Design the sequence.
């Protein structure tokens, strides 16, 4: 238990409503050798942050005013009044992966830094634009950029971060940088495809599990795949090695997203920084919902009926639901097996991610650290 | 006269209100050897379109649904109902430049095609986002994408076109492609800087001529500089040659923008597809306004007073002005010398653009065609 709590950087010892990660946790505890090496993960994330943040900040400083300030607010480096802030910059899994990826190719971790920075820039470009498109008012417990600085700045600064990503990589001036940028560009296109799918799914009654996995592969898998291979590419790895590392990252991303989908319904608002039943309020067709609607039986039938009626309601009517109505839907999803299926899916993706590492010849320590990161992703609580 | 009319692809023989291009035209006619070779320019633009459009369409076809459709609507290839359309795809100056740029480096024009396509993708990414940020409802005589398909699609498809630009170049897999992408990325950052300046200037009473030129250099000059050098880079030119061609493109862009600023106030709505006094309605701090406000004398003083009062009005009050009130402001700008100064500025930038070509060793025919394109840009009527 202490292992898991410590691995979650927002760990709380108070009991969580819904206890979202129990299934995954139990499964990990039951499989010897797969328990999370917390100390190692904490150090990896910290190393990623320490090596990446100064370079990321220097890159953002290149932006003209007021975009530099807006970006600094987005990253949590300053508050709404421009005062320095030690905000929550996220879990920093991507930078940690990019650095390990360089080491997997036999290079020093520093070789992966421009890749880590570029991936972080693209990730944050997508957050800025997605928050605006989705109308999300909160991220990481703070008002989103479009809410504070207006839609135009959210668009503009997102664009600028995307451009900056290519700039940072290509100024290395090496053939490896060209290959890395190409991979990042392709990943970005998949990121955009995923957001397009996400938007279109919101207007549909039913989304299949396959469609949902495809969307999540684009929206989350592609950039984690890039993070897990970009350091290796910068370190001179061949395409076969880079592809294997990308496959690890892709499945890690799908495991991450499955856990995210569980937290989106059953997560503790204090840990996630979101409302209770957050994804249900947004009518998000996430994995537990897709799996439940695809199941047989009374609970699935009742859920389908409720959700078909919900789909006809205006957003305002829908948001007027009281807690009990969302709780009812969440209970039906669970009864129909959507929660359990998603937990198992996280585990399946975790296993596939680790298997992808087998084809790569890398130092044993690096392999263990990549495995520890994969474990961490599955047991996190936010 | 016939020379100029034929050079403008939207030429009308009916007299134009305001006759926006007379000053530039007269100056060109008065300088022997600088008259526009219309036949040559028409062929150059046509060649750019013919070689670039199929590759551009194939690139856009890579986008997932519905982004491919939204992009096809934006480019004018289909109408709002999805029916094929032979819409107005713009003047195609950038593709023509990219192809000539390859020839300036001794390569075949086809070498410049991926560069032309990438530049067009970035240009249209910026149009999609700018139209949304600026709230512009019309472009090229049609409803803008955000108006037809909603803000989310305008953001998403813009992002996708930007990503596609890097993809198209980097899949060439050559060191030249890496250099070309780096130049395009830097140009895109300047494009974004320019839009940020444009937005911030709208909230200010006065913008100096220097600030206006800086903004226009970013917003228009940078991408034309890239178009004019990207073909040469792909053709293996060294940085010195590419920089000289970029300088030609930069000043060509400033000349283009000066003419655009004249058309934005005195252009014929039938040619420009915009409202009368379009830039004045949008309170745009364009060159003629900046030059007039920076001048001495009665007209400048009266204009400054009017505009300071205008700045206090709401957008709705402001748009309620009748034609005579805008006409009064336009007349004051002209009396204060803003129109004449901007005409002369277009000419100065045109001269500087041509001078930049002197340092590049290129075939005489290519030099003449680059000069003809520069002439065309200064005398255009839309």
Sequence:
């Amino acid at each position: 238990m202490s292992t898991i709590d410590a691995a979650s950087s927002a760990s709380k010892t108070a009991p969580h409503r819904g206890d979202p990660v129990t299934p995954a946790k139990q499964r990990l505890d039951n499989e010897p050798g797969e328990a999370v090496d917390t100390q190692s993960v904490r150090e990896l994330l910290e190393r990623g942050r320490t090596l990446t943040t100064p370079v990321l900040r220097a890159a953002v400083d290149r932006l003209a005013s007021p975009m530099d300030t807006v970006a600094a607010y987005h990253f949590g480096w300053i508050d709404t009044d421009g005062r320095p802030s030690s905000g929550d910059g996220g879990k920093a899994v991507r930078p940690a992966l990019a650095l390990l990826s360089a080491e997997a190719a036999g290079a020093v971790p520093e070789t992966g830094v421009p890749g880590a920075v570029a991936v972080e820039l693209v990730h944050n470009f997508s957050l800025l634009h997605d928050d605006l498109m989705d109308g999300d008012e909160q991220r990481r417990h703070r008002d989103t950029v479009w809410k504070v600085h207006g839609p135009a700045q959210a668009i503009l600064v997102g664009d600028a971060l995307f451009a900056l990503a290519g700039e940072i990589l290509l100024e290395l001036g090496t053939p490896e940088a060209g290959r890395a940028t190409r991979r990042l560009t392709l990943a970005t296109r998949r990121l955009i495809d995923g957001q397009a799918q996400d938007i279109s799914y919101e207007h549909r009654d039913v989304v299949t599990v396959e469609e949902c996995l495809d969307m999540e592969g684009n929206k989350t898998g592609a950039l984690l795949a890039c993070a897990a291979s970009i350091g290796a590419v910068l370190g001179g790895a061949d395409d076969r090695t880079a592809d294997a590392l990308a496959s690890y990252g892709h499945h890690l991303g799908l495991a991450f997203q499955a856990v995210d989908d569980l937290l989106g319904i059953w997560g503790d608002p204090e840990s996630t920084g979101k409302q209770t039943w957050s994804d249900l309020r947004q009518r998000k067709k996430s994995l537990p919902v897709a799996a439940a609607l695809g199941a047989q039986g009374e609970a699935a039938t009742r859920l389908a009926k409720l959700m078909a009626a919900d789909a006809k309601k205006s957003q305002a009517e829908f948001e007027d639901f009281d807690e009990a109505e969302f709780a009812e839907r969440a209970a039906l999803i669970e009864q129909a097996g959507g929660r359990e299926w998603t937990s198992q899916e996280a585990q399946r993706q975790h296993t596939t991610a680790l298997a992808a590492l087998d084809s790569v010849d890398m130092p044993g320590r690096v392999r263990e650290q990549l495995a520890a990161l994969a474990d961490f992703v599955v047991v996190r609580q936010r």
